[in-house]
Amino acid sequence: MQISQQQRQLIQLFRHPDEVEFSNIDWEALILTGRQNGFLARLYYQLERHQRLEDLPQYAFKHLHSAKVFADAQRQQAIFEANEINNSLSAIEISPVFLKGTAYTLLDHPVAYGRIFNDIDVLVPKPLIEKTEKQMLLYTWFPEPIDEYDQHYYRQWVHEIPPLKHASRRTIADVHHNILPPISGRAPNIDLFTQYKIKTEYQCYVLSPAALTLHSLVHLFFEEDFSKGFRDLSDLHILFSTHYQDEKYWQQLRFLAYETGFTLELFLACHYCEAILQTAIPFTFKHELVAFSPSPMQLKCLNWIFLRVLQPSHPNYESTSYRLARLLAMLRGHIKKMPIRILLYHTGHKLIKAFERGILGRYSDTSSNLQPQPPDKNN
Amino acid sequence: MQLHQLKFDDYIHKMTNDGLCLDLGVGVFRFKSHITSVQQNVYEMYADYNITEDKPADFHACVKLAKGPRHYINPQVHFESDVVTPFLPLPKSQAFPLLEWGMNWCLSAYDFNHFILHAGVIANQQNEAFVFPAPPGSGKSTLTAFLAYSGWRLLSDELAIVTPDSLTISPFVRPVCLKNNSIKLVKDWFPQVKFTDTATDTTKGDVAHFKPPANSVKQINTPAQIKAIIFPRYMPNVPVTVFKLDIIEASEAIASNSFNHNVLGEEGFKTLVKLVENVPCVELQYSDVNEVATFLQNEEW
């Protein structure tokens, strides 16, 4: 498969920072690609690890550093918010387990450095969801206004409740009771994951690195939006690489994937990390993975899609085949998450909404919480 | 080469293809637009800025027509920075103000190397900068405009770009944005200054932009040192009256006008401390801008 120069250079900079000749890089295009993929701050830390920051042209340093400052602020904020949530919930004897970016941060894991994320992800047992929600309300975490349909969508089908926003700090918390929508039929027994929870130095619970890895890769291969696909793949790369020598990690990963039925996803994660980022996977582990491989024909189809959508992307150089791959990946993600009958119903509803917006203007629907904010502070 | 030296046709070619790159000191902006009012206003307002040919652009500013059936009834425009659309679309008549606001957004979204304050900034002959942080309606822009066209150096009418943990301020010279009654005031005071058409009915009322003084544009790469931070408050019929703020009041007032001290974290805090410990911070009530000019010249800080 052909990839563009920006894609290749971004991957090279991340994987082999020592070998890259900086003067050969079109930095403007590279910075835009990196930013679009939420990758600039991660690149900063990678170049720092390889002591190559000093060699950067001033232009590149300036932009990477700015992204790093922003990512650092997010990391600090995540720790603060996790503590807030932890304290408010422990008051009613619920101990939440933090997931994804917040968990990496609380663990001070290498994958947390330079990783941009949008919300604080929390897991609580399903029977405690209502109590959790009420308690968070007391601490001014309010749901954003959403319409009745979306309310139904969350409550009936999905593994999380509508996002909660803190009234003054505007941080978003996603409260989950599982890692996949129950309606998908693939939601695992979540106790299998939480049995591997560990307490961090901040007294908050997070999943173990192996369980976090499995969550991350399940998330990726059930995803429908691949705009951050490359960033997510690089998360897996860093997780795999950090624990390369840790036998327990691989054992737990394999066992958990097997118990929860995500062996195909585990295979795919290792497969695409190797293919795109040349990630080192322990030999014995790779050997065991063969049993989880899909049929050659299936793999061929999946390769056609994922070898495209997991590359760094930018609308400026998206090929037609890339767009098609992204469409297929989106369809695949949706079908995996919802039975077809419900999916059609859901899609129909969303299409009507989109049509209304098309007629009345893009931002006519004031109930949507995805509106960009109007300009302020710049009169 | 300055923009006014570029032939209009060549200019339009750039604006509608790879973009026109101008050096604005704190960064190179790549402008793109097919919209006539934007093209004409950029050509006029940014006439004295240097075109850069071989430097990569730091910020991307594009205004384009919104798509959809609405296009035929009540056309709207978007601001786009590369592929990001941070704002709601606005009526086409506000295309140029939207570009200007979008450019401010670029700095606030992508430049965390500086401590950025919402403030007007002017400097005297000795390169000493006076910073006017203030919320809308305080007369900050009118005051900045008056001083800028009366021989002081304009650094910015909107954003004070401070190097963290220092008193150094970088110019971000741009067309001066004036609102409502100030538009007529400044036109009367300085009839020689070029200005754009007034965009009516924006979220801020009527808005017009005034061309920045050529002398200030020439010095976009010359930083200045902050001499005083002044919170202006326009009040009818009062003589110039100054209240000194203590360290707590000053840091709160500065923080509330800062775009990013919280994102900068420790660096942001250090900068705040540096400012309040080394620079006098005052609230200034005034009704006559001439009195303010005299006051700034004569006061021993």
From TrEMBL, chain A:
Concerning InterPro entries, the annotation shows: NTP_transf_5
* Pfam families membership: NTP_transf_5
- The protein, known as: Nucleotidyltransferase family protein
- The record lists the organism as Neptunicella marina
From TrEMBL, chain B:
Q: Which residues, by range, are in coiled-coil regions?
A: none
GO-annotated molecular function? kinase activity
Q: Which domain of life is it from?
A: Bacteria
Q: Keywords for this entry? A: Kinase, Transferase
Q: Which Gene3D superfamilies match?
A: P-loop containing nucleotide triphosphate hydrolases
Q: What is the name of this protein?
A: HprK-related kinase A
Q: Which organism is it from?
A: Neptunicella marina
